[in-house]
Amino acid sequence: xxxxxxxxxxxxxxALVTGCAHMEDGDRTRTEGTAAGAVLGGLLGYAVDxxxxxxxxxxxxxxxxxxxxxxxxxxxxxxxxxEDFLDGEAxxxxxxxxxxxxxxxxxxxxxxxxxxxxRDLRARYDAGSADKRRLEARRQDLQRQLARSEKxxxxxxxxLKVQEAILAEExxxxxxxxxxxxxxxxxxxxxxxxxxxxxxxxSQLARIDxxxxx
Length: 214
What we know:
Helix content is 81%, strand content 0%. It is an all-alpha fold. The N terminus is likely disordered.
């Protein structure tokens, strides 16, 4: 069942791309963009689920570290017009934002519970009423959560670099009030905000982890 859930977004995207071969250029470009969005949405979606959260690290980590200039050129080639390209990138960033905002909301609740639990557990350990193994087991769970957050953070950082390069490049040739650029700029600003919130959550998790250190 887990394997089916993991591979389903990729299978759906593959079907979309395969069908592109029989389409006109404009329709093919739009469908390819949809396929990319299906993969992105599917993979990022696992970051919100604690049970499958680690999946995002392995899948997105494989694409980390690419050259920004090459990545921008590759993405742009998939679209028939610059307007379609900017719209497609705005849609892509919007997916990152939707998923990261959901992840941040979930993590906020978890952090509040962890704060209470860790303080209580540490107090009981210091008083001699809690076993060291309980602290270590809880800390391992916490470190897995922190690792998931850091992997998502890395993916967002990589995406932000690409989007900033796109805005800088396209901003040279388009008017200041261009609606396509404006939409992408709004999504990129939201991405930066979500990334900062994610980083703060990671910092809080690290502080709780330190509290449980024995």
